[in-house]
Specification:
Length: 348
Protein backbone atom coordinates (compact mmCIF):
# COMPACT_ATOMS: atom_id res chain seq x y z
CA UNK A 1 0.00 0.00 0.00
CA UNK A 2 1.07 3.60 -0.50
CA UNK A 3 1.42 5.12 2.95
CA UNK A 4 0.21 8.73 3.21
CA UNK A 5 -0.06 8.84 7.01
CA UNK A 6 0.65 6.16 9.57
CA UNK A 7 -1.19 7.33 12.68
CA UNK A 8 -4.04 7.19 11.92
CA UNK A 9 -3.44 5.24 8.74
CA UNK A 10 -4.22 6.70 5.34
CA UNK A 11 -3.35 4.05 2.78
CA UNK A 12 -3.68 4.13 -0.99
CA UNK A 13 -4.01 1.07 -3.19
CA UNK A 14 -1.10 0.74 -5.64
CA UNK A 15 -1.84 0.34 -9.35
CA UNK A 16 -0.83 -3.33 -9.34
CA UNK A 17 -4.00 -4.42 -7.52
CA UNK A 18 -6.55 -2.90 -9.87
CA UNK A 19 -6.87 -6.16 -11.78
CA UNK A 20 -9.71 -7.63 -9.69
CA UNK A 21 -13.33 -6.54 -9.81
CA UNK A 22 -13.63 -7.24 -6.09
CA UNK A 23 -10.87 -5.53 -4.14
CA UNK A 24 -9.45 -7.85 -1.46
CA UNK A 25 -10.01 -6.50 2.06
CA UNK A 26 -6.30 -6.26 2.82
CA UNK A 27 -5.69 -4.21 -0.34
CA UNK A 28 -8.60 -1.81 0.16
CA UNK A 29 -7.60 1.84 0.68
CA UNK A 30 -7.95 3.32 4.16
CA UNK A 31 -8.94 6.83 5.20
CA UNK A 32 -9.52 7.97 8.75
CA UNK A 33 -9.36 11.34 10.40
CA UNK A 34 -8.94 10.28 14.01
CA UNK A 35 -7.19 7.58 16.00
CA UNK A 36 -8.74 4.26 15.09
CA UNK A 37 -11.16 3.01 17.77
CA UNK A 38 -10.97 -0.62 18.87
CA UNK A 39 -14.59 -1.65 19.08
CA UNK A 40 -14.97 -4.95 20.96
CA UNK A 41 -17.72 -7.24 19.68
CA UNK A 42 -19.17 -7.93 23.16
CA UNK A 43 -19.21 -4.33 24.26
CA UNK A 44 -20.67 -2.99 21.00
CA UNK A 45 -24.07 -1.32 21.16
CA UNK A 46 -25.78 0.64 18.43
CA UNK A 47 -28.04 3.37 19.83
CA UNK A 48 -31.00 4.30 17.63
CA UNK A 49 -32.65 7.47 18.89
CA UNK A 50 -33.97 10.95 18.08
CA UNK A 51 -37.34 11.07 16.34
CA UNK A 52 -38.24 7.45 17.11
CA UNK A 53 -41.17 5.81 18.93
CA UNK A 54 -38.81 3.49 20.81
CA UNK A 55 -35.10 4.03 21.46
CA UNK A 56 -33.00 0.98 20.73
CA UNK A 57 -29.69 -0.36 21.95
CA UNK A 58 -28.76 -3.09 19.51
CA UNK A 59 -26.06 -5.74 19.79
CA UNK A 60 -24.31 -7.31 16.83
CA UNK A 61 -26.59 -10.39 17.16
CA UNK A 62 -29.67 -8.15 16.90
CA UNK A 63 -28.33 -6.70 13.66
CA UNK A 64 -27.48 -10.20 12.37
CA UNK A 65 -31.07 -11.34 13.07
CA UNK A 66 -32.49 -8.76 10.67
CA UNK A 67 -32.72 -9.77 6.98
CA UNK A 68 -29.22 -9.50 5.49
CA UNK A 69 -28.84 -7.83 2.10
CA UNK A 70 -25.82 -7.90 -0.14
CA UNK A 71 -24.68 -5.19 -2.52
CA UNK A 72 -21.59 -4.71 -4.66
CA UNK A 73 -20.60 -1.08 -4.37
CA UNK A 74 -17.59 1.08 -5.02
CA UNK A 75 -16.26 3.28 -2.25
CA UNK A 76 -14.23 6.30 -3.30
CA UNK A 77 -12.78 9.07 -1.18
CA UNK A 78 -13.93 12.49 -2.34
CA UNK A 79 -10.28 13.49 -2.41
CA UNK A 80 -9.20 10.67 -4.76
CA UNK A 81 -7.12 12.35 -7.49
CA UNK A 82 -6.41 15.48 -5.43
CA UNK A 83 -2.73 15.14 -6.36
CA UNK A 84 -3.57 15.95 -9.99
CA UNK A 85 -5.07 19.40 -9.35
CA UNK A 86 -3.07 22.45 -10.40
CA UNK A 87 -2.58 24.73 -8.59
CA UNK A 88 -1.82 22.16 -5.91
CA UNK A 89 -3.92 21.88 -2.78
CA UNK A 90 -3.21 20.93 0.79
CA UNK A 91 -4.54 17.55 1.91
CA UNK A 92 -3.61 13.98 1.13
CA UNK A 93 -2.11 13.79 -2.37
CA UNK A 94 -4.15 10.78 -3.49
CA UNK A 95 -3.65 9.81 -7.11
CA UNK A 96 -5.81 6.95 -8.42
CA UNK A 97 -5.95 4.56 -5.49
CA UNK A 98 -8.38 5.98 -2.91
CA UNK A 99 -11.08 3.74 -4.34
CA UNK A 100 -12.10 0.09 -4.12
CA UNK A 101 -15.03 -2.18 -4.90
CA UNK A 102 -16.43 -4.71 -2.43
CA UNK A 103 -19.45 -6.83 -1.66
CA UNK A 104 -21.05 -5.49 1.49
CA UNK A 105 -23.79 -7.14 3.48
CA UNK A 106 -25.90 -6.39 6.49
CA UNK A 107 -29.35 -5.08 7.38
CA UNK A 108 -30.92 -2.21 5.50
CA UNK A 109 -30.84 1.06 7.41
CA UNK A 110 -34.56 1.37 6.65
CA UNK A 111 -35.25 -1.89 8.53
CA UNK A 112 -33.34 -0.72 11.60
CA UNK A 113 -35.33 2.51 11.55
CA UNK A 114 -38.59 0.60 11.18
CA UNK A 115 -37.71 -1.43 14.26
CA UNK A 116 -37.39 1.81 16.22
CA UNK A 117 -40.64 3.24 14.83
CA UNK A 118 -38.68 6.13 13.38
CA UNK A 119 -40.39 9.17 11.93
CA UNK A 120 -39.80 8.21 8.31
CA UNK A 121 -40.52 11.66 6.96
CA UNK A 122 -37.91 13.33 9.16
CA UNK A 123 -35.31 15.10 7.04
CA UNK A 124 -32.05 13.55 8.24
CA UNK A 125 -30.35 10.57 9.75
CA UNK A 126 -27.24 11.40 11.76
CA UNK A 127 -24.51 8.78 12.28
CA UNK A 128 -21.64 8.82 14.72
CA UNK A 129 -18.67 6.48 14.62
CA UNK A 130 -16.86 5.21 17.70
CA UNK A 131 -13.86 7.39 16.90
CA UNK A 132 -13.72 10.58 18.99
CA UNK A 133 -12.26 14.02 18.43
CA UNK A 134 -8.68 14.79 19.42
CA UNK A 135 -6.90 18.13 19.69
CA UNK A 136 -8.13 20.29 16.81
CA UNK A 137 -9.94 17.50 14.95
CA UNK A 138 -13.56 17.19 16.08
CA UNK A 139 -15.69 14.04 16.33
CA UNK A 140 -16.62 12.46 12.99
CA UNK A 141 -20.39 12.85 12.65
CA UNK A 142 -22.33 12.88 9.39
CA UNK A 143 -25.96 13.49 8.39
CA UNK A 144 -27.60 11.74 5.49
CA UNK A 145 -30.81 12.99 3.88
CA UNK A 146 -33.54 10.55 4.98
CA UNK A 147 -34.42 9.82 1.35
CA UNK A 148 -30.98 8.25 0.80
CA UNK A 149 -30.96 6.61 4.25
CA UNK A 150 -34.21 4.80 3.35
CA UNK A 151 -32.99 3.70 -0.08
CA UNK A 152 -32.98 -0.12 -0.24
CA UNK A 153 -29.27 -0.01 -1.19
CA UNK A 154 -28.26 1.83 1.99
CA UNK A 155 -27.01 -0.76 4.48
CA UNK A 156 -25.42 -0.97 7.86
CA UNK A 157 -22.87 -3.51 6.68
CA UNK A 158 -21.50 -6.16 9.02
CA UNK A 159 -19.58 -8.06 6.34
CA UNK A 160 -17.13 -7.03 3.66
CA UNK A 161 -16.41 -9.59 0.95
CA UNK A 162 -17.89 -12.40 3.01
CA UNK A 163 -16.09 -11.80 6.29
CA UNK A 164 -16.79 -9.53 9.27
CA UNK A 165 -15.71 -6.01 8.36
CA UNK A 166 -12.04 -5.65 9.27
CA UNK A 167 -11.39 -3.34 12.18
CA UNK A 168 -9.66 -0.77 9.97
CA UNK A 169 -12.72 -0.57 7.68
CA UNK A 170 -15.25 -0.08 10.47
CA UNK A 171 -15.80 -3.22 12.55
CA UNK A 172 -18.42 -4.21 13.45
CA UNK A 173 -20.79 -1.96 11.48
CA UNK A 174 -20.39 0.70 8.83
CA UNK A 175 -22.72 2.59 6.56
CA UNK A 176 -22.88 1.69 2.88
CA UNK A 177 -24.20 4.65 0.89
CA UNK A 178 -24.02 3.41 -2.70
CA UNK A 179 -22.91 5.93 -5.29
CA UNK A 180 -22.08 8.61 -2.74
CA UNK A 181 -18.65 9.75 -1.69
CA UNK A 182 -16.72 7.94 1.04
CA UNK A 183 -17.36 10.59 3.66
CA UNK A 184 -20.95 9.39 4.00
CA UNK A 185 -19.83 5.79 4.62
CA UNK A 186 -19.38 6.20 8.38
CA UNK A 187 -17.26 3.47 10.01
CA UNK A 188 -17.66 1.92 13.49
CA UNK A 189 -21.27 3.23 13.69
CA UNK A 190 -22.47 3.38 17.30
CA UNK A 191 -25.36 5.82 16.98
CA UNK A 192 -28.11 6.55 14.46
CA UNK A 193 -30.23 9.59 15.29
CA UNK A 194 -33.34 10.57 13.36
CA UNK A 195 -33.39 14.37 13.20
CA UNK A 196 -35.16 17.33 11.67
CA UNK A 197 -31.89 19.14 10.95
CA UNK A 198 -28.47 18.24 9.63
CA UNK A 199 -25.60 18.04 12.09
CA UNK A 200 -23.68 21.32 12.24
CA UNK A 201 -20.26 19.90 13.10
CA UNK A 202 -17.05 20.35 11.14
CA UNK A 203 -17.46 17.25 8.96
CA UNK A 204 -20.75 18.59 7.59
CA UNK A 205 -19.79 22.26 7.42
CA UNK A 206 -17.35 23.60 6.33
CA UNK A 207 -15.76 20.13 5.87
CA UNK A 208 -16.55 18.08 2.77
CA UNK A 209 -18.39 20.72 0.81
CA UNK A 210 -18.13 21.60 -2.85
CA UNK A 211 -18.77 24.93 -4.60
CA UNK A 212 -22.12 25.32 -6.29
CA UNK A 213 -20.46 27.61 -8.86
CA UNK A 214 -16.91 27.08 -10.08
CA UNK A 215 -14.40 29.89 -9.49
CA UNK A 216 -11.00 30.41 -11.12
CA UNK A 217 -8.35 27.90 -10.00
CA UNK A 218 -6.63 29.13 -6.84
CA UNK A 219 -9.64 31.14 -5.60
CA UNK A 220 -10.49 31.04 -1.90
CA UNK A 221 -13.66 29.21 -0.85
CA UNK A 222 -16.93 31.16 -0.76
CA UNK A 223 -18.61 29.56 2.28
CA UNK A 224 -22.15 30.59 1.33
CA UNK A 225 -21.81 28.79 -2.01
CA UNK A 226 -20.61 25.45 -0.62
CA UNK A 227 -22.84 22.38 -0.80
CA UNK A 228 -22.70 18.90 0.71
CA UNK A 229 -21.29 16.31 -1.69
CA UNK A 230 -23.67 13.50 -2.65
CA UNK A 231 -23.37 11.28 -5.75
CA UNK A 232 -20.00 10.86 -7.43
CA UNK A 233 -19.28 11.86 -11.02
CA UNK A 234 -18.39 9.76 -14.04
CA UNK A 235 -14.73 8.86 -13.98
CA UNK A 236 -12.14 6.46 -15.36
CA UNK A 237 -8.50 5.94 -14.51
CA UNK A 238 -5.58 4.14 -16.12
CA UNK A 239 -3.88 1.76 -13.71
CA UNK A 240 -1.89 -0.18 -16.31
CA UNK A 241 0.65 0.86 -17.52
CA UNK A 242 1.81 3.34 -14.89
CA UNK A 243 3.13 6.85 -15.47
CA UNK A 244 6.69 6.86 -16.88
CA UNK A 245 6.79 3.08 -17.42
CA UNK A 246 9.30 1.84 -19.94
CA UNK A 247 8.13 -1.17 -21.91
CA UNK A 248 9.63 -3.26 -24.68
CA UNK A 249 8.18 -3.08 -28.18
CA UNK A 250 5.40 -5.68 -28.48
CA UNK A 251 1.77 -6.25 -27.44
CA UNK A 252 0.66 -4.67 -24.18
CA UNK A 253 -2.55 -4.33 -22.21
CA UNK A 254 -3.88 -0.96 -21.16
CA UNK A 255 -6.37 -1.17 -18.31
CA UNK A 256 -8.07 0.59 -15.44
CA UNK A 257 -11.37 1.23 -13.69
CA UNK A 258 -14.42 3.35 -14.42
CA UNK A 259 -17.40 4.23 -12.30
CA UNK A 260 -20.13 6.84 -12.12
CA UNK A 261 -21.66 7.06 -8.65
CA UNK A 262 -25.37 6.24 -8.90
CA UNK A 263 -25.17 5.72 -12.69
CA UNK A 264 -23.84 2.82 -14.72
CA UNK A 265 -20.75 2.86 -16.91
CA UNK A 266 -21.73 2.43 -20.55
CA UNK A 267 -18.49 3.04 -22.35
CA UNK A 268 -14.77 3.59 -21.89
CA UNK A 269 -12.68 4.87 -24.77
CA UNK A 270 -8.91 4.88 -24.95
CA UNK A 271 -6.54 6.98 -27.01
CA UNK A 272 -2.87 6.14 -27.50
CA UNK A 273 -2.06 9.30 -29.43
CA UNK A 274 -2.93 12.09 -27.02
CA UNK A 275 -6.61 12.15 -27.93
CA UNK A 276 -6.55 12.29 -31.73
CA UNK A 277 -8.20 8.88 -32.21
CA UNK A 278 -10.24 6.87 -29.69
CA UNK A 279 -11.00 3.14 -29.44
CA UNK A 280 -13.58 1.37 -27.28
CA UNK A 281 -12.13 -0.64 -24.42
CA UNK A 282 -13.60 -3.96 -23.28
CA UNK A 283 -15.52 -3.82 -19.98
CA UNK A 284 -16.09 -6.36 -17.19
CA UNK A 285 -19.57 -7.89 -17.61
CA UNK A 286 -21.16 -6.76 -14.30
CA UNK A 287 -23.01 -3.57 -15.26
CA UNK A 288 -24.49 -2.31 -12.01
CA UNK A 289 -25.36 1.03 -10.59
CA UNK A 290 -22.94 1.75 -7.76
CA UNK A 291 -20.17 -0.65 -8.78
CA UNK A 292 -17.17 0.06 -10.96
CA UNK A 293 -16.33 -1.69 -14.20
CA UNK A 294 -12.78 -2.62 -15.02
CA UNK A 295 -11.76 -2.06 -18.63
CA UNK A 296 -8.95 -3.08 -20.90
CA UNK A 297 -7.59 -2.68 -24.38
CA UNK A 298 -4.86 -4.71 -26.03
CA UNK A 299 -2.53 -2.62 -28.10
CA UNK A 300 0.70 -3.11 -29.99
CA UNK A 301 2.69 0.11 -30.31
CA UNK A 302 3.74 0.51 -33.96
CA UNK A 303 7.27 1.69 -33.17
CA UNK A 304 9.45 2.79 -30.25
CA UNK A 305 8.82 6.21 -28.76
CA UNK A 306 6.88 8.13 -26.11
CA UNK A 307 3.10 7.64 -26.06
CA UNK A 308 0.40 9.59 -24.25
CA UNK A 309 -2.46 7.27 -23.29
CA UNK A 310 -5.86 8.68 -22.30
CA UNK A 311 -9.08 7.13 -21.00
CA UNK A 312 -12.58 8.59 -21.12
CA UNK A 313 -15.77 7.12 -19.62
CA UNK A 314 -19.45 7.71 -20.44
CA UNK A 315 -22.25 6.89 -17.98
CA UNK A 316 -25.89 5.80 -18.35
CA UNK A 317 -27.11 9.39 -17.99
CA UNK A 318 -24.98 10.42 -20.97
CA UNK A 319 -22.34 12.20 -18.89
CA UNK A 320 -18.83 12.07 -20.33
CA UNK A 321 -15.64 12.70 -18.39
CA UNK A 322 -14.41 16.25 -18.89
CA UNK A 323 -11.00 17.07 -20.32
CA UNK A 324 -10.29 19.30 -17.33
CA UNK A 325 -11.54 18.65 -13.79
CA UNK A 326 -13.27 21.53 -12.04
CA UNK A 327 -10.72 22.99 -9.65
CA UNK A 328 -12.17 23.52 -6.16
CA UNK A 329 -10.57 24.71 -2.92
CA UNK A 330 -10.54 21.30 -1.22
CA UNK A 331 -9.52 19.24 -4.22
CA UNK A 332 -12.64 17.07 -4.31
CA UNK A 333 -14.29 15.06 -7.09
CA UNK A 334 -11.32 14.93 -9.46
CA UNK A 335 -12.63 13.27 -12.62
CA UNK A 336 -10.72 14.55 -15.64
CA UNK A 337 -9.95 12.23 -18.56
CA UNK A 338 -6.98 10.26 -17.27
CA UNK A 339 -3.55 10.49 -18.82
CA UNK A 340 -0.43 8.36 -18.59
CA UNK A 341 2.82 8.72 -20.55
CA UNK A 342 4.99 5.70 -21.34
CA UNK A 343 8.16 5.04 -23.30
CA UNK A 344 8.26 2.09 -25.67
CA UNK A 345 11.81 0.92 -26.22
CA UNK A 346 13.25 -1.22 -28.94
CA UNK A 347 13.51 -4.66 -27.34
CA UNK A 348 17.05 -5.75 -26.59
N1 LIG B 1 -16.07 7.01 11.82
C1 LIG B 1 -15.44 7.38 10.69
N2 LIG B 1 -15.95 7.00 9.52
C2 LIG B 1 -15.35 7.35 8.36
C3 LIG B 1 -14.20 8.17 8.35
C4 LIG B 1 -13.67 8.56 9.60
O1 LIG B 1 -12.64 9.25 9.70
N3 LIG B 1 -14.32 8.14 10.76
N4 LIG B 1 -13.65 8.55 7.14
C5 LIG B 1 -14.57 8.57 5.99
C6 LIG B 1 -13.91 8.80 4.72
S1 LIG B 1 -13.49 10.40 4.36
C7 LIG B 1 -13.73 7.79 3.79
S2 LIG B 1 -13.10 8.12 2.27
C8 LIG B 1 -14.09 6.40 4.10
C9 LIG B 1 -12.91 5.46 3.89
O2 LIG B 1 -13.28 4.14 4.19
P1 LIG B 1 -12.17 2.99 4.26
O3 LIG B 1 -11.10 3.41 5.22
O4 LIG B 1 -12.88 1.75 4.68
O5 LIG B 1 -11.63 2.85 2.86
O6 LIG B 1 -14.55 6.25 5.43
C10 LIG B 1 -15.38 7.29 5.91
N5 LIG B 1 -15.91 6.93 7.20
MO1 LIG C 1 -12.73 10.51 2.14
Amino acid sequence: MVLHNDRPEDLEMPNAYFDQWITPNDKFFVRQHLPRPEVKADAFRLAVNGLVAKQLDLKIEDLRKLPQHKIAATLECTGNGRGFFRPRLPGIQWLRGAIGNAEWSGPRVSEILKLAGAKMDAAFLESDGADVGVAKTPDFIRSLPMKKALDPGTLLALDMNGEPIPQIHGFPARLIVPGWDGTSWVKWVIRLTVAADANKGFFMNPGYRYPKFARPPGSPPVPAELEVIEGMRVKSAITKPSEDDKVGLGPLTIGGYAWAGEQKIMRVEVSVDGGAKWKDAGLTPQNLNYAWRLWKLNWTPPHPGYYTILSRATDSAGNVQPLVAEWNPSGYLYNAIDRVGITVEKSA
